[in-house]
Specification:
The complex is a heterodimer of chains A (about 220) and B (about 250). Chain A has eight helices and six strands. With about 220 residues, chain A is of the alpha+beta class. The model of chain A has no long low-confidence stretch (mean pLDDT about 95). The longest helix of chain B has 14 residues. In chain B, the strands form two sheets. A two-stranded parallel sheet of chain B has the order 1-4. Chain B has a two-stranded parallel ribbon with strand order 2-3. Chain B has about 250 residues and is an alpha/beta fold. Chain B folds into two domains: about 100 residues, no CATH class; about 140 residues, Alpha-Beta Complex (Nitrile Hydratase, Chain A). The N terminus of chain B is likely disordered. Chain B is built from twelve helices and four strands; from the N terminus they run H-H-H-H-H-H-H-E-E-H-H-H-E-E-H-H. Classes of the chains: A alpha+beta (about 220), B alpha/beta (about 250). The interface between A and B is large, with 114 and 101 residues. Strand 5 of chain A pairs parallel with strand 3 of chain B, so a sheet runs across the interface. Chain A: NHase catalyzes the hydration of various nitrile compounds to the corresponding amides. Chain A: It holds the Pfam family NHase_beta_C. Chain A: This is Nitrile hydratase subunit beta. Chain A: InterPro entries: CN_hydtase_beta-like_N (IPR049054), CN_hydtase_beta_C (IPR042262), CN_hydtase_beta_dom_C (IPR024690), Elect_transpt_acc-like_dom_sf (IPR008990), Nitrile_hydratase_bsu (IPR003168). Chain A: It comes from Antarctobacter heliothermus.
Amino acid sequence: MSRVHDMGGRFGDGPVVPGSEDDPIFAQEWHAQALALTLAAGALGQWNLDVSRHARECLSPGDYMAFSYYEKWLAGLADLLVMRGVVTRAELAGAIPAASTLTDRRLKPEAVAGVLARGGPASRDGAAPRFAKGDRVRTRHPTRNVMVDGGHTRLPGYAAGLVGTVELLHGCHVFPDANAHDQGEQPEPLYTVVFDAAEAWGRAEAPGDTVSCDLWESYLEPVA
Amino acid sequence: MQGAKLFGGWREALFGLRPKAPTRHPLGREARLSGIVSGASEGHGAAMPHDHADDAPPHSLLPPEPALRVKALETLLTRKGLVDPAALDEIIETYAHKVGPRNGAAVVARAWVDADFRARLLADATAAVAEMGFAGRQGEHMVAVENTPEQHNMVVCTLCSCYPWPLLGIPPGWYKSDAYRARAVREPRAVLAEFGVTLPDATRVRVWDSTAEVRYLVLPMRPEGTGSMDEAALAALVSRDAMIGTALVAAPT
């Protein structure tokens, strides 16, 4: 039921290499170009954030692990551009580009500051929350998108089937499991649910350590 | 596949090839074989993307080298009128020079000196940081989590790389690394040790996995001996990593 991006808790990755706070923001010039291109292409409005996350998650495990961070972005972008008909496979491979009907959506330089400053809030009006702060809940097990087989979901595998405590309520947010698959936003109440580390991992590094996830209501069921 | 054999797109842009293509060889074979462009002059040999099968993922059609891959995509989208290179420059300029961890450090310093602001920050961080002009993409729903002697907070995104851009900028490489994503949730203290941070066992560690659009800012503990420092001097003490929760703020030496 898993995809390669869902790596929380995995063994074998070796040490984290912190680097310096003074390291360049973009280690390579093309990293900056890849980020900017992804944002500018997103502004064409042919997909949403959840669709673009899912595109990266759908990279084959071989590609996902072989690609560096911004290579994943680029690959996801190229795949999305073709999937949405913005470009053709032939154009990606080097054919002379055909005219596009989307040119009036091109992000203009003078619009960049406003677009980045506005962002895209995910909060929506919606149903009242079923759970309250302090409620005990159990997460779905196994984690999966119940509408689309193999589809996008934001319940990590390590947090599937755990009992935790509702700590924060965030109102209703766009539901990624639907929004990533063009099934509309279907907003649901969103909660921060905290789990005991010993419950999640079988053993905690120290008693009382906890881990939390931000989870949509349909991932959760009440625990009596 | 047919279109993949035409020349004039990214290969021309990248290698300066300017064949008479898209005309096709009278015998129906691709222009490359007609001698307009020799395989040798392309220097790609067996790695030519058009060797892929039709069901290969689209990204595999791009050049193998990442810098050329991004250049090819940019060239294609620019030629189609879908991307303005000046807009790309503007985006890069924003995150290279305008939006970064000094924003978050200013928020932390204000919370240290202004109890009312600290209370507003902990109650509704999105609104509180907006008072200071910080808002936008990847910071639409902010929550500030306060370190105390009882609880140390640490932020990760195990599923991708969610991070509070308006306050901290673009995440550092280690934050996006497999090792951090995999291990921060399971063994945060071991990861902290790799950052040179050792916490007392009596301090609980709380890891916040950013699985939705909520973005977390760690409000570090104010170090001893800083009572006389003003907001700007305090902000200078606050590192990016301290606001992710992989560092503490040290007292000034």
